Recover the amino acids of this structure.
């Protein structure tokens, strides 16, 4: 999504430069490592400032996906020093992190959010998380979008009869991805006998063997494993399919659902996270209650047995993605939002919490 945002900003006529490769992310709270990251951020901010002192500063600081494990430790400093407006996309705020080992970085993230001039939210869930921190007039809603590329170029003839080809595309890693694979395997095992289907799994990762073991109870020949593929390879797999199935535990929204829609596939997912922002239940796919394996299996059985409904859902998914979820549409939304911003007063402070370098 970060690359898509760059493309949308450039499509809107804006000159965009990646100011830094600095990463503030830590997977676990470690005071010593956090202090080292903070010191590194201070040095990096000074490096950038020296560059801007020589060549002139930009008009805006734009950060992607700041949250308590990866707060923006550069933007607030530079914005205050050069009088720049601050914007961010897909920011996340977790109030429960205000106490405990993440408290300092939670505070840094919260301070940056409060001091921001624009927040771009992809889902209502994102916007709800900013309630009380960011005034509504500083929030712009931007539905998740896609550069359709090879997915939009797919030419497929949906089958009116015969075996239903199901495809899923996901990394095989611990956590929500592994949980979704296990859930999908259990739903497939619960399908009524006699249904004609096959699943193609596109993906690889450290949990590969555990994922394959989760599907071991299915009859031989029901699951095909392709390994990891590039975008063209994924699009080719979708071109041969009739349905995209991925439960979606922990998905912020899921770009793969948009890719499937661009290829003309309906999606079967759970109504959790931000998935409803990319899959419209009953229009471009089917959503079932989070964690309800029986409901997911029943929806899967119904779609396997109803090729006409799959075709209708897939056609609407393709129309919606290729017509409404484009880089050009996103560029227009972003440009309108940016046009409302003005410069800060040079040196205007953005408060940072104790424990974060000034």
């Amino acid at each position: 999504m970060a690359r898509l945002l760059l493309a949308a900003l450039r499509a809107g006529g804006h000159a965009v430069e990646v100011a830094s490769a600095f990463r503030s992310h830590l997977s676990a709270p470690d005071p010593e490592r956090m202090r080292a990251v903070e010191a590194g951020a201070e040095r990096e901010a000074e490096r950038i400032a020296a560059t801007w002192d020589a060549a002139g500063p930009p008009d805006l600081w734009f950060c992607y996906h700041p949250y308590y494990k990866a707060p923006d430790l550069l933007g607030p400093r530079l914005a205050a020093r050069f009088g720049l407006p601050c914007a961010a996309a897909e920011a996340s705020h977790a109030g429960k992190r205000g106490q405990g080992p993440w408290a300092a970085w939670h505070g840094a993230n919260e301070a940056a959010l409060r001091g921001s001039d624009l927040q771009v939210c992809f889902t209502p869930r994102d916007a709800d998380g900013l309630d009380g921190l960011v005034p509504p007039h500083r929030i712009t809603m931007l539905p998740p979008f896609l550069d359709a590329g090879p997915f939009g170029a797919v030419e497929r003839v949906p089958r009116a009869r015969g075996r239903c080809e199901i495809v899923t595309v996901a990394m095989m890693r611990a956590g929500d991805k592994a949980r979704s694979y296990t859930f999908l395997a259990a739903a497939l095992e619960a399908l009524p006998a006699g249904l004609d289907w096959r699943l193609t799994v596109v993906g690889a990762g450290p949990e590969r063997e555990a994922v394959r073991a989760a599907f071991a109870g299915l009859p031989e020949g029901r699951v095909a494993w392709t390994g990891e593929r590039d975008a063209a390879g994924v699009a080719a797999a979708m071109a041969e399919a009739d349905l995209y199935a991925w439960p979606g535990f922990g998905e912020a929204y899921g770009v793969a659902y948009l890719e499937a829609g661009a290829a003309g596939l309906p999606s079967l997912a759970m109504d959790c996270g931000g998935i409803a922002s990319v899959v419209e239940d009953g229009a471009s796919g089917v959503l079932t209650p989070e964690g309800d394996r029986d409901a997911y299996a029943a929806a899967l059985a119904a779609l396997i047995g109803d090729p006409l409904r799959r075709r209708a859902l897939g056609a609407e998914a393709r129309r919606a993605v290729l017509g409404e979820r484009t880089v050009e549409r996103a560029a227009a939304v972003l440009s309108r939002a940016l046009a409302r911003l003005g410069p800060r007063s040079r040196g205007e402070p953005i408060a940072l919490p104790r424990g974060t370098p000034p």
Q: What stands out?
A: The chain has two domains: 2-145+329-339, 149-324.
